[in-house]
Write a structure and sequence with these properties.
This protein is α+β, with helices and mostly antiparallel strands. It has seven helices and 20 strands. It has three domains: 114 residues, Immunoglobulin-like (Sandwich); 128 residues, Sandwich (Immunoglobulin-like), CATH 2.60.40; 100 residues, Four Helix Bundle (Hemerythrin (Met), subunit A), CATH 1.20.120. The strands form five sheets. Strands 11, 13, 14, 15, 17, 18 and 20 form a seven-stranded mixed β-sheet that branches. Strands 1, 2, 4, 5 and 6 form a five-stranded antiparallel β-sheet that branches.
Length: 462
């Protein structure tokens, strides 16, 4: 008698199906786990890039060592083990670390970790900056990945001969400006002379310039020069307290500042404009708003003219009005108008020569100093000054004399938003000549003008 067939129950079928799919799931997970490490272990997806500004710096010239670590998005950048080279023969200073950035490299989204170190060559000779070593540690899905940069051979040059008298230790590209905090003082009262050095180079190591005044002036150095925020770019401010012992109209002589320009390998000198000041007798002390001078200015400021009252023994006299009096009265303005007309016509026939084109960031640096000076002027004077700064900057960058009527042609290579922002700044500056304007308005206008000039400078240097 054959045994009877009993079909599997529904519960047994479910158990068989569950076991089958569980087996398939285990196989898939095993293959997935095996594939992921093989792909993640490809060290070509992570790489290191190291650069140095100059391989032939001068002694004391700051040069920036930059390294960038590129990692696939999702990896933990903080786990990287970094071994920096010893930088033998160099002083060093770390720049502030920036945030991790995301970039697309060869179609892949990458994290970019960037760090910068300012190196200061301490002596002449050839020095080797050894390889930078970075180890990406092992993870459950990736083996340890070592990364290394090539070494650099740096030839540190000695300073060129025949340095100017006013050169001390400055290496870079700089401009200077000088200012007095008052235009008139009394004998025995102090006046503060401020010299600002702005530029790119060893700005933190710049020494106080030398200054010599006539014997009836006493000089006291201020102990608190302003330190720049960046070790390679910014402004260094030096102050002196000057006390006169003799009344009269005096002129603070120009200050000389010498530096080595590493781009040309030659020494250069910048000179401030002489500053006039009126020293009154001790019984008549008066003060006036500050004046300032920029190295880019070519005309010297003149002292205020003090009008003296008429002596009492001179009585006013009336004259009879006649035709000859009218002619004599009209002759000066008519003559002045004729001279102005002829001068204008001559200027149209003989246009002004092209301004000198300034390379690099020199035009921008000069505009920055002039904008700072504008903040110390009255709002209306500052408005006029800002408009002139904009046109002067564009002229120096292009090497062409740019006026309002030729402005659009000069801006044709810039994007429309940049053009609009610059024209808005210029319109606001022009409006400030006639419309009511406050000091806060000038501060905002200086801020916006500086921002757009930085954007233009960045675009034209790209």
């Amino acid at each position: 008698m054959m045994p009877s067939y009993h079909p599997p129950s529904p519960a047994m079928c479910l158990r068989l199906i569950s076991a089958k799919y569980l087996f398939v799931l285990v196989v898939v997970l095993f293959v997935f786990v095996q594939i992921i490490p093989l792909d993640a272990q490809d060290s070509g997806s992570s790489f290191l890039d190291v650069t140095i500004d100059s391989l032939t710096p001068y002694v004391g010239q700051p040069t920036i060592y930059t390294w960038q670590l590129f990692l696939p998005a999702g990896m933990n950048a903080e786990s990287a083990q970094i071994t920096l080279p010893p930088f033998t023969g160099f002083g060093q200073e770390n720049l502030p670390a920036g945030d991790v950035q995301l970039q697309t490299v060869n179609g892949q989204s990458m994290q970019v970790v960037q760090r910068q170190i300012v190196l200061y060559p301490l002596q002449t000779g050839t020095f080797t900056i050894e390889a930078l070593q970075i180890l990406l540690p092992e993870t459950p899905f990736q083996s340890a990945v070592p990364l290394s940069s090539p070494p650099f051979a740096v030839n540190v040059l000695p300073m060129p001969p025949n340095a100017p008298v006013y050169f001390q230790n400055a290496i870079g590209q700089f401009d200077v400006a000088a200012a007095l905090n008052v235009t008139s003082i009394a004998v025995g009262q102090p006046v503060i002379l401020t010299m600002t050095i702005t530029g790119t180079g060893n700005i933190q190591q710049v020494l106080r310039p030398k200054m010599v005044l006539p014997e009836f002036w006493r000089i006291f150095e201020q102990d608190n020069p302003v330190q720049p925020a960046s070790p390679v770019f910014g402004s260094r401010v030096f102050e002196w307290q000057l006390i006169p012992a003799q009344a009269g109209i005096h002129v603070i002589p120009a200050l000389e500042f010498g530096f080595l320009n590493p781009q040309t390998g030659s020494y250069e000198t910048r000179t401030t404009t002489p500053l006039p000041i009126e020293v009154l007798a001790a019984d008549n002390p008066t003060t006036s708003p500050p004046i300032s001078a920029d190295v880019t200015q070519t005309t010297h400021s003149q002292p205020d003219i003090m009008l003296k009252p008429l002596p009492e023994n001179i009585a006013s006299r009336s004259t009879n009005f006649d035709i000859w009096g009218l002619v004599l009265w009209l002759l000066p303005p008519l003559g002045a108008g004729l001279v102005a007309f002829m001068s204008s016509a001559r200027s149209r026939r003989n246009p002004s020569p092209k301004p000198e084109r300034l390379s690099g960031s020199r035009a921008l640096q000069q505009a920055q100093m002039q904008l700072k000076t504008a903040l110390s002027q009255s709002p209306k004077d500052a408005s006029v000054m800002i408009a002139d700064i904009i046109l002067t900057y564009l002229s120096r960058k292009t090497g062409q004399s740019i006026q309002r009527e030729t402005l659009k042609n000069a801006l044709s290579g810039l994007s429309l938003p940049v053009q609009k922002t610059l024209l808005d700044c210029l319109d606001h500056a022009d409006a400030g000549r006639y419309a009511p304007v406050s000091e806060q308005d000038i501060k905002l206008l200086v801020r916006d003008t500086l921002r757009i000039l930085l954007e233009i400078d960045k675009t034209w240097q790209a």
